[in-house]
Amino acid sequence: MALGSAAADGADAMREQGSGLTGRALRGSALTAGSYVIAQGLRLASNLILTRLLFPEAFGLMALVSVVLVGLQMFSDTGIGPAISRSPRGDEPAFLDTAWTVNVGRGVLLWLLTCALAWPLAAVWEAPELRQLLPVAGLTLLVAGFNPTRIDTANRHLMLGRLTALDLLAQVIGIAAMVALAAVWPSVWALVIGAVIGSAAKLALCWIGLPGQANRFRWEAMAARELIHFGKWIFLSTLCGFLLAQGDKAILGGYLSLEALGVYNIGYFLASFPALLAGAVVARVMIPLYRARAEGRGGARLNRARWALTAGVLLALAALAFAGGPLVRLLYDDRYLAAGAIVTAVALVQMPGIVGMTYDQSALAAGDGRGYFALIAARAAVQTLAFLAGAHWAGLGGALLGQGLAGVATLPLIARLARRHGVWDMRHDLSMGALALALAAGVVAANHQALAGLFPP
């Protein structure tokens, strides 16, 4: 009902304000959501094929590779995209060329760091294959550094149609490469080389297919100062964001075998779909909407969108949690059956964070990078400590339980940030919190035996 109501509101709003910011935001939300659903559908289809061509250990190795690549990206994120979205100079060629120059230098540095980390991380995780895999996989970071700022300009103005199509086409090329390589070369190398091909495809498609002036190397001191001033808090925030997004796999790499980590990665992939979809929508459209609200426009529609989005994601997570076991039995062979309980558990522990997921972008829209960093840092510290403690005392089940409790514990911090920027909706939080609690209780009652299997005897 919530998603249907949101769709009806969206249709009405588009008819009323199709040419304005609200109309573009609604179309941007629909495009982002639609493209994400298609992208995840493509990933699922390729995943089903690849799990039959490859072995679970390959997915465990790829999970570790992803931890390193995502970690390096997040550890070096200078907030170029959000800076272009919010800056008054976000359409000026000098500003954009300076931002692009920073990104290129960052891509080169990240690839060199990937090469340097390959041997020590292979020893830490006792996975010697990483010595060769990481330098090749790191080429995706080098290639991405050359992506044009026309991508960020399209996001700034919520002109997402062509960008969405190009993203999907690049993904199709990368997935097709992975499947074709795995068919003739059943190795984790098929996943790594396919990822590099997909990254190169996106670079080529965006340079050719997006309108606007081509970037060139340029350094304007004033633009650099603005980017650095805004980016320092984004940089610190993404350091902590890594722990939120990838900390589970980094920690579990020291507790689980590669095979078990590969099974966990399959379960996480299935369970995280609703939350990641919502995150993609929030990241693309919330800053422009909060900026408009600060100018006295679109407040009612923003509130309705928040209610519909939160309720819709909670219901989707509950559906996945109830269906985890049967879904995995339907889609995968017997080697991956243990992923069913993981789907249920991961979907369950993500529910608390959904209640406050729309608030943090209000800080970025207001230029409050320090407040955004403080929230992300607190969430990362609490979740990491809870996950580590749970893993130490009760294995995988304890780690996931700790993650869920951390989500509950940090809700007051999110509400505090929202109140500071005048966007907190207490009625929303109490209602959606009650819904999350009721859904979680039902999931635990229906799946208590499967969930108990995640804990040591």
Provide a descriptive summary of the structure in words.
The chain is mainly α and 457 residues long. The chain has two domains: 1-21 and 256-457, no CATH class; 54-232, no CATH class. 82% of the residues lie in helices and 0% in strands. It is globular. The two termini are 41 Å apart. Residues 1-19 have low confidence and may be disordered.
Brief sketch in words of this structure:
This protein is an all-alpha fold and 457 residues long.
Classification by helices and strands: mainly alpha
Helix proportion of residues, in percent?
over 70%
Spell the H/E element sequence: HHHHHHHHHHHHHHHHHHH
Rounded Rg:
22 Å
User: What overall geometry do the principal axes of the alpha carbons give?
Assistant: globular
Average pLDDT for all residues: 83
- What separation lies between the terminal Cα atoms? 41 Å
Summarize the main sheet.
none
Provide a count of the helices.
Answer: 19
Percent strand equals under 5%
- DSSP, total strands: 0
How many domains is the backbone divided into? Answer: 2
Low-confidence parts: 1-19
